[in-house]
Amino acid sequence: MTELATMDFHPRPQAGDAKPWAFPAPKRGALDNGLTVLRCHRPGQQVVAVEVLLDAPLDAEPAGLDGVATIMARAFSEGTDKHSAEDFAAELERAGATLDAHADHPGVRLSLEVPASRLAKGLGLIADALRAPAFADSEVERLVNNRLDEIPHELANPSRRAAKELSKELFPADSRMSRPRQGTEETVAAIDSAAVRAFYEKHVRPATATAVVVGDLTGIDLDALLADTLGAWTGSAAEPRPVPPVTADDTGRVVIVDRPGAVQTQLLIGRIGPDRHDRVWPAQVLGTYCLGGTLTSRLDRVLREEKGYTYGVRAFGQVLRSAPDGTGAAMLAISGSVDTPNTGPALEDLWTVLRTLAAEGLTDAERDVAVQNLVGVAPLKYETAAAVASTLADQVEQHLPDDYQATLYRQLAATGTVEATAAAVSAFPVDRLVTVLVGDAAQIKAPVEALGIGEVTVVSAE
C-alpha cells in the first residue's frame, strides 16, 4: 500500500488588537510675512503634500470677467521671474513633483506633491509661482483659448449642462453662484494678461493665505525651508472683504433642457441647505448617505435594482461656501440618468422614495451600514498625505476648527436613526426641490407634467 504524504501547516495568522484611529491633528503657526501654516507629520508618507489657499473667491472677480480666477490659477505654473513656462515644467519634473491649481467659490487653491527628499525644491517652485508669476501675454492667451475650447464640450456633457442650469435656476441672476464657475465664452474671451495680473495684485498676498504641509517630515527642518521659500513671498495686508450671504429660490419646479433625440435623460434635483457650521450637518451627512450615498442605498435599491431604470442614482451634500455666521450654504442634490421612456416612471418612484422616507423613516440597519461605510473605512480614505492635506485645507477654507474632521467622525458614530431620518427629510422636502432634466422634451414633458411635482418649463440646450 502506498503511504500518503503528509503536510505540515503553518499556524494561521491571528488578527492583532485594533488600534484606535482619529483624523490627524495639525500644528498651526505663521511665518513672518503673515502666511498661516498648518503642518502634519505622517511617518512613512514619503510623498509630501502641500496645499496653498488664496483668498481670491469667485465673487471677487470683476464684472464681465467671470473665469479670471481660473485663468490665474492655471497661469501660476506657466513661468515665473526665474523660469519660462517650459523651464518651470522641466524643474517640476526633475523634482518628481506635480503642481495643480483650481478656482472655486471660496478661493483659489494650489496643490503640490513632491518626494520628501525634494521638498526644498518643490517649495521653492511653488513659492516662485506665488511670489512672481510671469503671466506672459502669450501664455495667458493660450490658456484663454484652451478654456474657450473646453466650454462647448462641457455644454455637450449632460451632467455639466444640468449643473449649469440648476445654478442658474436656484440663485439670483446677480449672484456669482448663478453663473458657471469657470466663466462663459463671452467673459473668458475678454480676459487678458493685464486682467489676470490686476486680479492677482488685488487678492493674492501671504497675509490672507494658508499653507498646509503633510507628510513624513523626519529629519526635515521645515521652519527653515518655509522661511527660505514661502517666507520670501511678500505683500501688503488686506482689508476685510464683505461676503454676500447665499440666497436661493427652491420653489418646487421642473426645467427641461431640450436635447431632441436623446436616448437618456440626465436628472439633477437640488436645493440649498445648511453648511458644516450647522449642528444638523452630521445627521444630514448620515441621512443623505442612507438615501443615496452608495450602491446599497435606498434610491439605488429601488431605481436600479428593483426597476432597472438606471446604472445608479446618488444623493449628496456639497459645501458651496461655509461661514460661522450662518451666511454659508451647501448644495443638496440627487443626480443620475435614466432611459428616456422611463423618465416619468423613474421620477415618480424617486418621489415615492422621498415620501416613504418622510412617512416611515430609515431603518436601524440602513443607519448602521452608513456609519460603517463613513466611519469604519476612514483610516483607508486618509492613507495618503494628499488626502489628509486636502481635508485640512477644506477645514481652513470653510473656517472650521482644526479638530473638525475628528469630531465629525465621533458625531457620525453617535447619530441615531431618528436624527438621520429627520435630517434627510428636511434636506429633501418633496415640495421644495428644483428638478433639471436634460433630455428629449417631446418625449418626457407630458409624463413629467402628470406627476405634479412643479411647473414644467422647457429651455434650449444652447
Automatic annotation (TrEMBL):
InterPro entries: Metalloenz_LuxS/M16, MPP/UQCRC_Complex, Pept_M16_N, Peptidase_M16_C. Residues 1-20 are annotated as: Disordered. Pfam families: Peptidase_M16 (PF00675), Peptidase_M16_C (PF05193). Residues 191-374 form the Peptidase M16 C-terminal domain. It comes from the Bacteria. Residues 38-170 form the Peptidase M16 N-terminal domain. PANTHER family: METALLOPROTEASE (PTHR11851), PROCESSING PROTEASE (PTHR11851:SF224). This is Pitrilysin family protein. It comes from Streptomyces indiaensis.
